[in-house]
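To illustrate the input format used throughout this study, we show a single complete record. The first block contains the structure-token representation of the backbone; no residue identities are included at this stage. The design step must infer an amino acid for every position from geometry alone.
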């Protein structure tokens, strides 16, 4: 049965959307721009729909194009997983291991383990991806990653997972020195806080319900992509809210951020490592045993 929608065509749409132009997609896919244009035009003709609005200076996805891309990305993920699983069955080691880490943790926490793994000399590619809030569990549940580091209990979905508590993450309410709340009387009340925009890291979940913490009713938000963006917005005095204490200890010590006592303190949350219980590839299990006993992570959480 012939279908106009091919994996290659979906890859082209995905590249155009991520790179922002046909030329950018051509560069990423190592093709000439005319080949990208032909693929899109052929797909539009076969489906008898318009995927891009070309009336402006740059092509913009139509509602139909956006729908095709969003649904198509699910097929791209499935095809990628199928290819990976097939290679994994044929070899003793996986060809790739994907580790998702919670944005609350710095990526550097994973580096000592990765360095030791590379010293083994096994032909496994390691990919690390940053996730925010429920996105950590969402990435594992949907098999976008094989292992997560820093999943929280709040957004954990039902499923056959094996998990291990790594430690507790403490939070501090922090503002810039020149922010109005820096000189406000303590403890801060809800009314004090919700007068100012909350700096927020956008949940990266695709399927699980998006989460948030520390927001008050009718409080405006300023949203960034991850915790690093959130910290930067705090430093700039653009937003307020809770930050991982260990991530901002130096900023607090240097006076670039000011800690404020709040009437309703935020309790620490337990962070854990997790994997699908039935997955036991050699690389996965090596990282599982290494990271669940990794002093780099546990000491960082407990500091």
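Output of the design step:
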């Amino acid at each position: 049965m012939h279908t106009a929608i091919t994996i290659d065509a979906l890859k082209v749409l995905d590249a155009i959307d991520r790179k922002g132009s046909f030329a950018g997609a051509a560069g990423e896919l190592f093709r000439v721009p005319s080949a990208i244009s032909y693929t899109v035009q052929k797909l539009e003709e076969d489906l008898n729909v318009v995927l891009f609005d070309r009336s402006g200076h740059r092509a913009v996805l139509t509602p139909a194009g956006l729908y095709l891309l969003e649904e198509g990305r699910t097929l791209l993920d499935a095809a990628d997983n199928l290819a990976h699983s097939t290679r994994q069955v044929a070899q003793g080691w996986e060809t790739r291991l994907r580790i998702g880490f919670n944005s609350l943790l710095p990526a550097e926490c994973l580096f000592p383990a990765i360095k030791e793994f590379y010293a083994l000399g096994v032909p496994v590619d390691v990919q690390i991806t940053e996730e925010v809030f429920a996105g950590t569990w969402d990435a594992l549940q949907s098999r976008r990653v094989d292992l997560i580091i820093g999943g929280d209990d709040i957004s954990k979905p039902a499923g056959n997972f094996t998990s291990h508590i790594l430690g507790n993450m403490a939070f501090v309410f922090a503002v810039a020195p020149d922010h109005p709340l820096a000189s406000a009387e303590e403890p801060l009340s809800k009314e004090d806080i919700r007068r100012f925009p909350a700096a927020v890291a956008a949940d990266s979940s695709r399927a699980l319900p998006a989460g948030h913490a520390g927001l008050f009713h009718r409080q405006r938000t300023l949203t960034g992509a991850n915790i690093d963006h959130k910290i930067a917005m705090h430093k700039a005095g653009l937003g307020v809210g809770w930050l991982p204490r260990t991530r901002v200890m130096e900023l607090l010590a240097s006076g670039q951020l000011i800690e404020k006592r709040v009437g309703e303190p935020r309790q620490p949350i337990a962070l854990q490592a997790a994997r699908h219980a039935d997955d036991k590839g050699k690389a996965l299990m090596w990282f599982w045993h290494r990271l669940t006993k990794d002093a780099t992570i546990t000491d960082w959480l407990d500091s």
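Structural context for interpreting the output: The two ends are 60 Å apart (CA to CA). The longest strand covers residues 161-169.
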